[in-house]
Amino acid sequence: xxxxxxxxxxxxxxxxxxxVNNAVYLNFLEHGRMDFLRHIGFDYEKVVSLGYAxxxxxxxxxYKASAFLYDELExxxxxxxxxxxSGEFFQEIRKKxxxxxxxxxxxxxxxxxxxRPSKIPEDFLVPGLYPKEES
Length: 135
Hints:
alpha+beta, 135 residues, Thiol Ester Dehydrase, Chain A, 5-stranded antiparallel sheet
């Protein structure tokens, strides 16, 4: 399942070179993932209330082109892997004209209240979380 979220670049997201600061793209990717989880019915608040969390453990990010003030960005999210404890998303950030700004592979893990890796509880495994070939 491919999901798209949208964002318009704000002035405080730009740096002295007048383009989006590289670190800010991490926020954009997070925004896309959280909107995706909400879209597929993943109840993140319930996860937290039961003492679990999904932590990002690794990001491979490739910066391809700059985004600038007021650019309209499309943030795509595709689940690519789901294991017993962790999973992966493939994400892209594109300008409205289709220019690829960023692509990233994001690895996440389920952790319990003490911050230790934990098996993902069955009732958290909503269909949209599975990679396309597994659904």
